[in-house]
Structure formats: structure tokens, C-alpha cells
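$ fold --in a.seq
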Amino acid sequence: MKSYDTGPISPPILEETIGENFERTVAANPDGEALVDVAQNRRWTYAELNAEIDLTARGLMSLGVQHRDRVGIWSPNCAEWIMVQYAAAKIGAILVSINPAYRTQELGYALNQSGVRTLVAATAFKSSDYRCMVGEVRPNADGLRDVVFIGTGDWNDGMNHVGAEGVGESVWLAWFLATVLNSFADVMEMENGTVEICAAWRERSRLLASKHAQ
């Protein structure tokens, strides 16, 4: 039994994950312009953006982010926001969008209420020093384990540049074993008796395989 009410069937619902939908678009138009960052004069084709998203996804996994974990994004509009959004979707994590205008107390409340495990943040916005604000709330954010600041070494040397040589095999083995255990919750018994593995598991397996192929 499906877990949602389809309602009218014309036009039909796209029965695919966000990651699968994006991959389909990439396959159809790999050289088309996908994202333009006017402020920093950066451009990505669909193929280039997809490669950046996969790097970001592997970076999140190297931090231990797993299926159903909360990944927070606290930043004004930027290209990295899009990369984190799709990367989280591809590995089955839940994206928590935090208002860039939040003050320290509001940030702390949002982190604790949502259970954010990994926070990706800008370093500042207008008069707000995000680094200082995160430092203030972090001691009381019980579930927060990692913070990555966009445009710093956290992002440039870690999150967005994780390759085969950049992640210890023990980290990948630990992630893989945890994913295998979690995948049992994603196995659904279909009416015809066959077993289907959810799309999020297939996407995580593809990202793992692509890491070893590099």
C-alpha cells in the first residue's frame, strides 16, 4: 500500500525521489546551464552542478550523516545552499532551513527543536556574525555534532573536496555498515510478494560506488 493519497491521476504524480528527478534532468541536458551565481561570477552546467552535489553528499557522509539525520542550512541565498539541499536529498537526510535573520536565541531554539546533527552555515549575514552566534549556542545544542562554514577550509578542503584519497576507509566502512542496518527499515513488502529497496538506499549505494571508482 502506498503511503500517500494520489488523488487525481492526470497528470500523473512523478514517483521518483528528488535525487532521481535531478539525475534525470542531468541526463537529458548535461551541458545546459543549471545555476548562475551572479554575485561571485560562477556558472554550472547540469553535469557540473551534479558533480558538485555528489561531492557535497560524500562530504556529508564522511561526517557521519545518515538516512533520516537532520542537516541544517543557515545562510542567505548562495550556490552552496542548492548543493546542500540536493546533497541531503540524495543521501536521504532531512534538510532543515534556518531563517538567516535569526538571532542567537532563535538559532539555539531552532537547532534543539529540529534535532539538527550537522549545520552548514555562512560565516556572516548583514550585521550578524554567524561564527560567534554558533559558538554561543553550540554548548547547549545537544544534538549538534558538526558545523561547516561555507567559504572556509571547512567547506573548501573538506565538505566539497572529498575524494577517494580524502576519506579514510574506516570512515567509509563504518558509514556503509550503518547504512546497511538502516536499509532494513526501508524495505517494503509489495502486494505481489516482491521486495523493493527504497530509492534513497539505491542513491546512497551509487554515491559510495562512485567514491571507490575515482
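$ fold --in b.seq
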Amino acid sequence: MVEIRGRKNLHRLAKFHLAPWGVWSRPDRSPQKSLAPSGVAQPLFGATRPHKRHFAIWVGMFDNTNTPAEFTQELTDGINAVIQLLRSMKIGSMKIAGPKSGSWYRNLVYVYTQVHIRRLLTFLDAGRAEFLAGRYLITDMCARAIYETVAVYCDFAAQLGPLLDADEVDKIEDFLRTRMFATRLPDFIAEDKSVSATNILTQIDKMTKVSPTARKAYDHLSDIVHPNALGSLVYFTTLNAEDGTMTFPDETSSQERARDSFAASAVMLLHFHMALQELEPRLKKLSEGSPAP
């Protein structure tokens, strides 16, 4: 795994508190300046890909045109850096055959990590694309999925860490099996109750220790993505109070809320990155002196 520079800064950034719609409580923040060269047009979610030789923050997914006004430049840069890191961590294959050893367990953790990295990148890219296409409700769905994916992985890392420290190999194996094959499907659970997935709300609630308003933001997004008032009547209509006319405009305030919620969900990537960094030295210690499978 690759370590990002300025880890302490990411820890500090991740401790800011999110408001329900993902707006940062930093009213004293001065207007941020874009790092893009003057005269360069900036798409809503930045350029499609970074320069092939280096990564310039201004071509990242987020900038001052698609984040809440309360976002600092430092925070936006941190999010873009983590996204670029995750893209660089994608691999094509991982060998998991061979004798059970420290390296074998390490590789299983890497497999679990790899699939969650790909989930996050899928939701980030899809949320961006759907916003640009004017399908803001799908962007909200992607934002909600990012909260879930980060919460699941952080819970995984928090529980795996002590097992790695204690070098409890049998417990590590059982834990990895139950997490890698976790399910909510009754037929599968009937065959093996140990693979019953933890309720996602339990894992979201755990995230409130590091992001106090994570549950509130998640609940708002859940109410939107389900066919309740926020995700239907409120989302797609505008009422003229004077003549009582209900209109269905293509552009509503839901656009801005979706934009802010999506940017706020990306802040959770900082916690995902920190979980990776907490696991890495433990996995290295586990596999030391053990031949790679």
C-alpha cells in the first residue's frame, strides 16, 4: 500500500464535523482559490484524468466549483490526493493459492481491500457522471453507497487490527472468512450463520466516533434514495404558493444538495485511507519471515 504525504494533515482534516447535507461548519473560511491556470475552463467535476506524468490537484475530481463554500482548499486537495492514491492502488490480480502463512493471510486482506477500493472508485465515477448527466438522484445514491463502503471497511480494519496484534491466526482466518463472504440473504445464512452481515446502521454509527454527523447525513441520503417525500415530491417539484401551481422543473434545489452531499461523502475517503495506514504495518509484521504464497 502507498502512503500519502501529510498523513497528520489528513487526520486533522477528517476530524471536522459534517452538517446533515454535508456542509462544513467553517463559516470563517475565506473564499478558496482554484489552482487551475487562469483562463482554463473547469468542468463541474474536473478533468477526466490526471496528466500521465504527474498529478496536478486542479485536474482532480473536486475543486471550488463543485464543493460546498465551506470546504477549504486544503480539504479539497486532500480528497483529490486520496482518490488519486486509490486509483494507483488498483491491481490486476492477487495470488491466494498456497500454504496458510502470514503472507497468505496478508493477501486475503489485500483482496478484501482491493474490492472495496474498486467499489469506492465505481461510486465516485458514477456519481460524477450521473451529476453531469442531470440525474442527481443517482448521485445521491452513489453518495450513500460511499458512506456504507467506508463504514464497512473501517469496521473491518478496527476489528482485524487487534487480531493481527495478538497474532491469533485461527481467529484471523475465521474473521476474514465471515467478512469476505458476508451476506444478508436468508438462504445463505441458513447454511452458515457466521456469514450473516453486520447491520449497516451499526457500522455507520461506529463512524460517528470520528465523524459525528455521519449517521445524520446517511439518514438524510437514505430518505432521499427511498421513495419517500424527500426523494420524490420534494425532489422533483416546485410549488408556487401564490397560485397553487405544482411544477416539475428539470433544475431544482436538489441539484445543489446532491452536489454537496456527494462532495461530503468523498470526505469519508480520508477515514478509509487512515484505516489502510493503520493496517499496513501490522500486515507487514504478520508476513515477515513468511514466504509469499
